[in-house]
Amino acid sequence: MIVSKVLLIFNNCNLVFQKGYSLIYWGINVTTYQKHTPMKLQSLISVALLTILTSNCSSELKDSAKQSSPDPEQVKQLLTTKQCSDCDLNGAQLIDADLQGGNLQGLDLRNANLQGANLEGANLIQADLGGANLQQANLKGAKLTGAQLSSFTKGLPFFGRQIKTNLRGADLQKANLITAYLRGTDLQGANLSGAYLHAANLKQANLKGANLSQADLFGAKLGKANLEGANLQKAKLAVASLPEANLSNINLEEGYLHGADLSGANLTQANLKKTDLSGADLVRANLTMVNLNGTNLKRASLAAANLSQSSIQSVNLYGADLSGANLDQVNLKNTNLQAAYLTAAVLTQANLQGTQMKGAKLHEANLQGTDLTKAVGLDSPLTEVEASP
After folding, report:
1. Is 158's pLDDT higher than 50?
2. Residue 15 and residue 57: Cα distance in Å, rounded?
3. Which residue(s) pair with 143 in the sheet?
């Protein structure tokens, strides 16, 4: 009976298989073992579960009601004065609205339709824009510090349904998005050049083809984000987190990624020319056919990374960890590999002309077809560097 009621509520609220499942599973297990669980405790657990779930459903229904009928007077006030303190504009229709320089700080704009709206220079600090449609909106120079651009339905966070914001093609040049919550947000083709995204949460966001040139993403969270073909030329991503992100065909020329986490990231055919990746974590990253010419990878971790067929000329890899890395057919001309760890690395048919290798560790490295006589500074002859055939 308890199981059927719980599943019925979940079906009605469209929440089956979401995060609440683990709590229900726990409750069912507890109430199942009647030998060890007093009847009163079973009843309390059952009532608690039903109360929590029905409360969440109630919150969703209230949100839906608000979304369909925002106060027309509040909408009129916003459009007339460009400000509306304490207004609830959930679901408001603001297509092509002129809100340039408006004060929208802290407003509830969830699910609002702001397609093509002019929000240039607007104050959207702490505003809730979860689920809003900002496609082709002008947010140039807007202040979005602490804004929610991807949030959850009200009620208990454990059961909340994520509502994502559409910022596809939006103009966010030099916008202030410091600490903004943009998880899962659609920013495909958006213009974020020069934007301030310090510590912003962009996990799983869609930034395909976006312009992030000269953007400041210091400490930003971009885990599993899609940045395919994006322009991040001269962008600042120091200590940013990008594990398993899709960075294929990206332009990061002259970018600054000191100490960034790129573990498991896909950087296939990326342009990393003259980029600073010193101290970066690139463990298991896919760097096939990448342009790394002139890049700084000093003390970077590239263990088990795939760098096959990449161009790594005049690169600083001093003290870098390349153990188990794939450097098959890589051009390492004039690269600094001094004190680098190349244990069990694959260096077959690599070009080591003028490569600085003093103190490099080549234990069990595969150097088949590679001419080490053109390398500079090897401590021992080839027969003593413990390289495998």
Report:
1. no
2. 9
3. 123, 176
How many of the other CB atoms lie within 10 Å of CB of 389? 5
DSSP string, 282-333: -TT-B-TT-B-TT-B-TT-B-TT-B-TT-B-TT-B-TT-B-TT-B-TT-B-T
Give the bridge partners for 118, in sequence order: 98, 138
Q: Which DSSP string do the residues of 165-212 spell out, in sequence order?
A: -B-TT-B-TT-B-TT-B-TT-B-TT-B-TT-B-TT-B-TT-B-TT-B-
* Region of residue 249 (phi > 0: left; psi between -120 and 50: alpha; otherwise: beta): left
Residue where the block lists tokens 């297509």: 95
Name the one residue in this structure whose structure tokens are 């007093």.
38
pLDDT digits (tens, 9 = 90+) for 3-60: 443 444 444 454 434 444 444 444 445 444 444 555 555 555 555 555 554 455 444 4
Contact 116, 94 (CB under 8 A): no
Instruction: Give CB contacts under 8 A, 24+ apart, made by 63-72.
Output: 63/90, 63/110, 63/153, 63/154, 66/90, 66/91, 67/91, 67/110, 67/111
Token pair for 265? 């990231």
Distance, CA of 322 to CA of 283 (rounded, Å): 9
The position carrying tokens 């959930």 is: 90
**pTM metric for this prediction:** 0.78
Taking the C-alpha atoms of residue 291 and residue 265, their distance in angstroms, rounded to an integer, is 16
Amino acid 15: pLDDT: 42
Angle, helices 39-68/20-32, rounded to nearest 10 degrees: 160
CA atoms within 13 A on the CB side of 68: 5
Residue 378 has what pLDDT? 80
Percentage of the chain beyond pLDDT 70 is 76
Which is nearest to 327 in space by CA: 367, 355, 360, 387? 367
Token pair for 154: 């009200």
Q: How far apart are CA 225 and CA 207, in angstroms?
A: 7
Report the candidate in 191, 120, 178, 121 with the shortest Cα–Cα distance to residue 149: 178
